[in-house]
Amino acid sequence: MSVQPLRLYRSIFKLHRQMPPALRYIGDSYVRDEFKRHKEADDFFVEQFMNQWSSYLHDMADQLQASRAIAQSVPGASDFVPEVGRNLPSDALDKMTDQQIGQLWALKEEAKKIPENAGEGGR
């Protein structure tokens, strides 16, 4: 991996520290796996890969910032858990390959298996 992908990788993990433990656990595992799988990818795919993960980083940072702003405006919200995520646009599913749809389904099924206390007390 060159410096740029490594910087993005680290930035994503740093951002995940702001998430609830269960989401952090899922996110960290997924990011680690995806970056490993694309370590030796062709330049064409690396550019797309980097663009998508950069977009993810910015989207999640914006969502976490907005969530914190809401929490600060609500009295007594010290135990506030940030809400993150968004629905997948319907046209995005149409653009996915069968392999990508399979990965999305597998991710959904794995997320159902994660216990509520996953990620607490470290990685």
UniProtKB/TrEMBL annotation:
Positions in coiled-coil regions = none
Q: Which GO terms describe its biological process?
A: mitochondrial respiratory chain complex II assembly; succinate metabolic process
Record-linked Pfam families: Complex1_LYR_2
Please report which protein family the annotation says this sequence is part of. Belongs to the complex I LYR family. SDHAF3 subfamily.
Q: How is this protein annotated for GO cellular component? A: mitochondrial intermembrane space; mitochondrial matrix
In UniProt terms, what function does this protein have? Answer: Plays an essential role in the assembly of succinate dehydrogenase (SDH), an enzyme complex (also referred to as respiratory complex II) that is a component of both the tricarboxylic acid (TCA) cycle and the mitochondrial electron transport chain, and which couples the oxidation of succinate to fumarate with the reduction of ubiquinone (coenzyme Q) to ubiquinol. Promotes maturation of the iron-sulfur protein subunit of the SDH catalytic dimer, protecting it from the deleterious effects of oxidants. May act together with SDHAF1.
Do the record's keywords include Mitochondrion? yes
Subcellular location(s) per record: Mitochondrion matrix
Q: How does it assemble?
A: Interacts with the iron-sulfur protein subunit within the SDH catalytic dimer.
Any idea what this protein is called? Answer: Succinate dehydrogenase assembly factor 3
Q: Which UniProt keywords apply?
A: Chaperone, Mitochondrion, Transit peptide
Q: InterPro entries per the record?
A: SDHAF3/Sdh7
